[in-house]
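Hi, here's the filled form for the chain we discussed.

Project: internal
Contact: R.S.
Residues: 181
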Amino acid sequence: MAIAPRPTGAQRFTDARARKIAELIIPAVTEQGLHLEELELAANGSGTTLRVSVDLASGTEQVDLDTVAAVSQAISARLDEKDVLPELDSYDLEVSTPGATRPLTEPRHFERNLGRLLEITQTGGSPMLARLQAVDADSITVAEQKPTPKKGMPVKYADPTEISFASITQARVQVEFSHTE
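And the returned structure, exactly as it came back:
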């Protein structure tokens, strides 16, 4: 991607405490069939909040609330067992998913959003709305949404086109609401 992708693996956790926590909780996260997206220790008034973001490693399904609750309990148990933050009297644990409109920065983020409408900006270009049709190692295939001539008219798409990851400067999912009468 044209913008530096988010670091992967151990490089994601530059802070020594975050790296130590990640090493401890990754087994609890993967046991639930999830991937650790992000981990952040943030000052919160007089306390500290540990924010953990998890997602499914593949597929297009969404993480359900029962799974988030189960991984939260598993992480909490691991943290209590190892007392990984002894310098903190207390901390709040927040476990969530990245959210529908997070930036898509890795090929697996695109794979998780096959079939969805994306807003994509390429180097030197304007944002475009396009339906994600395929993802491979170096690029995505999309069909650009054409402007509708009148409100209420069906949406039409251009022929599929390939966009290299190297040319993408920004990409986000566009939340769509279906309307039924």
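Let me know if anything looks off before we file it.
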